């Protein structure tokens, strides 16, 4: 079969730009994905569509759907086309939602085996994935917050140890270089190391731990940045560093530890071994993965004891270790609570935009607009300057930018105007990660240790999705799963198309304002001072009881 990539240019295949935009976003997640043959985009099993038959049916529908119709998708499979109205979403979807008691990994794998369900990650099934860039600013902001809190605002001369060079983990080496550090990333699959080098996200590769450590030592001594991919297993390398009495300054991990069957690769296994043992003895594979995770987390805890800054980077590695008996696994901080919550409390989060014609100059034009018109926003201008210099495009040119309430709308309306007047070559799609203020409940990632103890309440992402539909988003998605697909998470996704029309102005204004309003209100409800301040400053209508 021919490899799928996103259609480029200004020619339409669909009946309007909104439909064409969503089709290109779907094609783009596959173009950027880790394993197109199996429709897998990232995070071990995060898929774009249930199977190829479902994919082709979705494509056919998007080619033919009218402006005033809505395509309904259930776990990556198109179910029907319903008559709605021209301001209703063109696509609504619910992916991987299983009711509480039955939301276990094993039940998920059973349903998957029967072809009834699909894990969509956050942005895979919702067609919002933009390659490793999607999390790069998040990783950069974490490192920057660590620098501020623990290292006198600079990571120059510091050593970061991490693992995993997959779809999302692949952002780590570049983020490390962007903060000026020396970063060592352990990755068992050499092909992934090669891919990150080819994509421009990683600088060096070695299979030799001594060589890797020498490169890191030389760079830290000279205060130079470097990124090194070490082909090896984190369950071996982390304990080996402990044994050698080497303590990095910062330690984390972004392997797919949330999944013991398709994600984390146990020590002494090759990726091929995993496939074989999964077929023949899945129970053994799970046990081996968990015992390796336990070894790795034990090493992370030792690094912490020795003074390193250690954090969980959103892959549920602590939970897996805890369930295997590492009872102090939760002494490791979660990145959201430790470093990003002050931003989320103001609904400042991972907003993103995609140039649908494939024209990279459109992204550069928007970069320049931000540098000129958002001078008061240091986070945005600092990031855009850096991204311009360091971040290569993958698939349709795109940019991530952490913006907050009001700013997202201001930017999107300005972009819609640039589409209208022909300054940009064509429409732009706006979206965000589901890991955003009002859009995700995950008690071991996004909502751990909330001030009011509301960590597990998933009303918020559900409200977010309903609000997104009633605020005229072009696509709304509700996802669950996470943490071994076992009911750890509920999240909501949103996509909007700036096609230059006055109707897009209305959609963008309502949907983006309401999305971030709910984010601020969620944190205000939990008692965060920053949110109350934001409410006051930005005139968000809050009912305080
Ligand atoms: P992926 O499946 O594309 O890549 C995981 C990589 O880890 C693979 O390359 C694999 O070979 C490697 N790996 C597995 N076990 C290993 C081991 N023992 N030692 C060394 N390498 C090993 O996944 P991804 O998209 O990169 O996501 C990774 C994890 O991060 C997932 O659990 C995902 O849910 C989580 N995630 C977190 C955030 C966040 O906001 N912090 C965002 C996205 C994803």
Indicate the overall shape: globular
The total count of helices amounts to: 18
Hetero groups in this structure are:
nicotinamide-adenine-dinucleotide
Stretches with pLDDT under 50, minimum 5 residues: none
C-alpha-based Rg, rounded: 22 Å
The biggest beta sheet reads: 9 strands, mixed
Could you say what the CATH architecture of the domain at 133-331 is?
Answer: 3-Layer(aba) Sandwich
The residue fraction in helices comes out at 40-55%
The whole-number mean of residue pLDDT values reads 97
Distance between the termini: 59 Å
CATH superfamily of the domain at 133-331: Urocanase like domains
Using the coordinates above, name the CATH class of the domain at 133-331. Alpha Beta
Oligomer: single chain
Number of strands: 18
What percent strand? Answer: 15-25%
Which structural category fits the helices and strands?
alpha/beta
CATH topology term of the domain at 133-331: Rossmann fold
Task: Write up this protein.
This protein has a domain at 133-331: Urocanase like domains (Rossmann fold). Strand 3 (69-74) and strand 4 (77-83) form a beta hairpin. With 545 residues, it is of the alpha/beta class. It is globular and about 65 Å long. The protein is built from 18 helices and 18 strands. Strands 3, 4, 5, 13, 14, 15, 16, 17 and 18 form a 9-stranded mixed sheet that branches. It has a 7-stranded parallel sheet with strand order 8-9-7-6-10-11-12, with helices on both faces. 43% of the residues lie in helices and 16% in strands. The N and C termini lie far apart (59 Å). It binds nicotinamide-adenine-dinucleotide.
């Amino acid at each position: 079969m021919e490899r799928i990539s996103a259609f480029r240019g200004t020619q339409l295949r669909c009946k309007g730009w909104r439909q064409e935009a969503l089709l290109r976003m779907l094609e783009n997640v596959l173009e950027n994905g880790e394993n197109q043959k199996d429709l897998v985009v990232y995070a071990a099993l995060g898929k774009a569509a249930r199977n190829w038959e479902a994919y082709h049916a979705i494509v056919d529908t998007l080619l033919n759907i009218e402006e005033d119709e809505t395509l309904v998708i259930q776990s990556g499979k198109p179910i029907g086309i319903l008559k709605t109205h021209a301001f209703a979403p063109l696509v609504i979807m619910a992916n991987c939602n299983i009711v509480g008691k039955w939301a276990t990994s094993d039940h998920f794998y059973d349903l998957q085996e029967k072809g009834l369900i699909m894990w969509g990650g956050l942005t895979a099934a919702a067609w919002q994935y933009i390659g490793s860039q999607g999390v790069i600013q998040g990783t950069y902001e974490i490192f920057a917050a660590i620098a501020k809190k623990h290292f006198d605002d600079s990571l120059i001369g510091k050593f970061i140890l991490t693992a995993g060079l997959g779809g999302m983990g692949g952002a780590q080496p570049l983020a490390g270089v962007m903060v000026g550090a020396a970063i060592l990333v352990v990755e068992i699959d050499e092909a992934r190391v090669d891919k990150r080098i080819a994509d421009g996200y990683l600088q060096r590769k070695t299979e030799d731990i001594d060589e890797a450590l020498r490169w890191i030592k030389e760079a830290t001594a000279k205060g130079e940045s470097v990124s090194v991919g070490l082909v090896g297993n984190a369950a071996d390398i982390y304990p080996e560093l402990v044994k050698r009495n080497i303590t990095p300054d910062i330690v984390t991990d972004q392997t797919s530890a949330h999944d013991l069957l398709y994600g984390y690769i146990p020590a002494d296994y090759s990726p091929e071994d995993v496939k074989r043992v999964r077929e023949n003895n899945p129970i053994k594979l799970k046990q081996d993965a968990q015992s390796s995770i336990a070894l790795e987390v034990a090493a992370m805890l030792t690094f912490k004891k020795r003074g390193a800054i250690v954090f969980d980077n959103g892959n549920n590695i602590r939970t897996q270790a805890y369930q295997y008996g590492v009872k102090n696994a939760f002494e490791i901080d979660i990145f959201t609570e430790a470093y990003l919550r002050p931003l989320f409390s103001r609904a400042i989060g991972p907003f993103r935009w995609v140039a649908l014609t494939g024209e990279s100059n459109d992204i550069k034009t928007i970069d320049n607009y931000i540098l000129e018109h958002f001078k008061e926003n240091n986070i945005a201008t600092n990031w855009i300057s850096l991204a311009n210099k360091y971040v290569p495009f993958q698939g349709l040119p795109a940019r991530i930018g952490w913006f907050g309430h009001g700013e997202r709308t201001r930017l999107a309306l300005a972009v819609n105007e640039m589409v209208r007047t022909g300054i940009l070559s064509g429409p732009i799609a706006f979206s965000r990660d589901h890991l955003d203020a009002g859009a995700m409940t995950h008690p071991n990632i996004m909502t751990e240790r909330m001030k009011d103890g509301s960590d597990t309440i998933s009303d918020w992402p559900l409200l977010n999705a309903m609000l997104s539909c009633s605020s005229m988003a072009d696509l709304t998605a509700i996802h669950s799963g996470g943490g071994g697909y076992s009911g750890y998470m509920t999240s909501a996704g949103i996509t909007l198309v700036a096609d230059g029309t006055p109707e897009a102005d209305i959609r963008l204004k309502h949907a983006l304002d309401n999305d971030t309003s709910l984010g601020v209100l969620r944190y205000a409800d939990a008692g965060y001072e920053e949110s109350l301040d934001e409410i006051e400053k930005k005139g968000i209508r809050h009912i305080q009881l």
